[in-house]
């Protein structure tokens, strides 16, 4: 069950506020009866009409892409650069990425036309975990890891506590591999966090989005999410 104005908005009739106006004006019917009161809930099987024209609820689609380097995390790009949407060849529905990955960052990104789930997954209050693997310059130590876990100040903002661990240290190449799990999605956040503790990022990959990984997908490959995966994403939001 969902609010009538919300269903109308998702079907592309009008914004929620404009949909409420249509309801107040008596222009909306549910199962043949005019509805004027706010807050009514409807089922997927209910017949909703606006000015006697039935509305069709947009079918929701969910995809997972293993984003390669050099691709923009956007539905389109004014400069004509390749976007994540361009990589989903054969998908005719209008979809858009959930959040962003930097131009040179690789890994898991979700694309969908579900606006509500997109808003929930990207809103910091829900705190869905995102796991990154970073190759950094320098031999990182436990002191730096502890600072990352407690939160560091970037752009005048202190990051929320994170999880961090050292995966590998290469003394010959003067590089380290670090796993960092965050619950936010500030602009260039992972790069800025690691730089703030003295270890600039050379390469960055998002290894997990919640429980989702790019396992089985080569760089640039994608797949449609299974229904149980979509349900689990929604459950993550609800539990938060």
Account of the 3D structure:
With about 240 residues, the protein is of the alpha+beta class. The chain has three domains: about 55 residues, Roll (Structural Genomics Hypothetical 15.5 Kd Protein In mrcA-pckA Intergenic Region, Chain A), CATH 3.10.290.10; about 80 residues, Alpha-Beta Plaits; about 80 residues, Alpha-Beta Plaits (2-Layer Sandwich). Helix content is about 25%, strand content about 30%. The chain contains seven helices and 17 strands. Strands 7, 8, 9, 10, 13, 14, 15, 16 and 17 form a nine-stranded mixed beta sheet that branches. The protein has a four-stranded antiparallel beta sheet with strand order 3-2-5-6. Strand 13 and strand 14 form a beta hairpin. Helix 1 packs across helix 2. The radius of gyration is 22 Å and the shape is elongated. It starts with a strand and ends with a helix. The model has no long low-confidence stretch (mean pLDDT about 95).
How do the helices and strands line up, and which of them pair or pack?
Elements: E1 2-3, H1 4-10, H2 16-24, E2 28-30, E3 33-34, E4 41-42, E5 48-50, E6 53-54, E7 62-67, H3 84-87, E8 96-97, E9 106-112, H4 115-122, E10 130-137, H5 142-150, E11 153-154, E12 157-158, E13 163-170, E14 175-182, H6 189-196, E15 201-209, E16 212-213, E17 222-224, H7 227-239
Helix pairs in contact: 1-2
Q: Report the average pLDDT across residues.
A: 93
Q: What is the radius of gyration computed over CA atoms, rounded to a whole number of angstroms? A: 22 Å
What is the H level of CATH, i.e. the homologous superfamily of the largest domain?
Answer: Alpha-L RNA-binding motif
Shape: elongated
| Extended strand count | 17
State the CATH architecture of the largest domain. 2-Layer Sandwich
Report the uncertain regions. none
The share of residues in helices is: 10-25%
| CATH class wording of the largest domain | Alpha Beta
Stated plainly, the CATH topology of the largest domain is called Alpha-Beta Plaits
**Whole-Å distance between the termini?**
21 Å
Report the sheet-strand fraction: 25-35%
Give the SSE string: EHHEEEEEEHEEHEHEEEEHEEEH
- Number of separate domains: 3
Secondary structure class reads alpha+beta
Number of helices: 7
Largest sheet: 9 strands, mixed
């Amino acid at each position: 069950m969902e609010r009538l104005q919300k269903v109308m908005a998702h079907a592309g009739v009008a914004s929620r506020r404009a949909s409420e106006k249509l309801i107040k004006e008596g222009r909306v019917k549910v199962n043949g009866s005019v509805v004027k009161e706010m807050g009514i809930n409807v089922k997927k099987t209910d017949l909703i009409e606006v000015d006697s024209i039935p509305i069709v609820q947009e079918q929701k689609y969910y995809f997972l892409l293993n984003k390669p380097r050099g691709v923009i995390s956007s539905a389109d790009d004014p400069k004509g650069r390749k976007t994540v949407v361009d990589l989903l060849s054969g998908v005719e529905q209008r979809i858009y990425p959930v959040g962003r990955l930097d131009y040179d960052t690789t890994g898991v990104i979700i694309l969908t036309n579900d606006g509500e789930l997109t808003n929930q997954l990207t809103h910091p209050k829900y705190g869905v975990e995102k796991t990154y693997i970073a190759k950094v310059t320098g031999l990182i130590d436990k002191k730096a890891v502890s600072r990352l876990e407690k939160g560091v100040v970037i752009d005048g903002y202190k990051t929320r506590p994170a999880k961090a661990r050292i995966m590998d240290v290469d003394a010959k190449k003067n590089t380290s591999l670090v796993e960092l799990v965050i619950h936010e999605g500030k602009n260039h956040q992972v790069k800025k966090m690691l730089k703030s503790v003295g270890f600039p990022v050379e390469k960055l990959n998002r290894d997990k989005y919640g429980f989702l990984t790019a396992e089985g997908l080569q760089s640039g490959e994608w797949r449609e999410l299974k229904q149980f995966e979509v349900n689990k994403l929604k459950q993550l939001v609800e539990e938060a």
